[in-house]
Design goal:
Helix 4 runs antiparallel to helix 5. With about 140 residues, this protein is of the alpha+beta class. A hairpin with a 3-residue loop joins strand 5 and strand 6. The radius of gyration is 17 Å and the shape is globular.
Length: about 140
């Protein structure tokens, strides 16, 4: 029987932080690595062309050097993140962060914040609105 993965909690609001279950994840302290990680997360489920990512993150280098830089940074992410293959799909031409599922459980504070704001704006119940806005403020802090 396969043991289930702990949920990966990803915090982008108020400072970059990763927690796998109860354990903080280190090694993702390079700003460009954090930026790539955040970009893939915010576009989860959507394949991102390697050449587009390389150009976007290294616009002032040659195409070949930008792709090499991307390969290096993806390698660092693979080394730092436990069970990365459950979350990140790496293919020859594209990369993408997988949708959250029981096989790849993850939570992103930005998505939770957006959900709370949407919930608050779509209700006519003041107590539901207050709870949702309180949750959004906690996430923001």
């Amino acid at each position: 029987m396969q043991e289930s993965l702990p949920t990966l909690h990803i915090h982008l609001l108020g400072g970059f932080q990763l927690i796998s279950g109860e354990t903080p994840v280190g090694g993702i302290d390079v700003p460009r690595l954090q930026s790539l990680f955040a970009y893939l997360l915010l576009h989860h489920g959507v394949p991102q062309s390697r050449s587009h990512l390389a150009y976007m993150f290294w616009p002032d280098t040659t195409d070949g050097q930008a792709l090499t830089n991307l390969r290096n940074i993806v390698h660092k992410l693979r080394l730092a993140l436990p069970n990365v293959e459950c979350y990140l799909q790496v293919e020859r031409q594209v990369l993408f962060w997988k949708e959250a599922s029981s096989d790849s459980p993850w939570m992103l504070d930005v998505l939770d914040f957006d959900k709370a704001i949407t919930e608050a704006s779509q209700t006519n119940n003041e107590s539901v609105e207050l709870r949702a806005l309180t949750r959004a403020v906690k996430l923001y802090r």
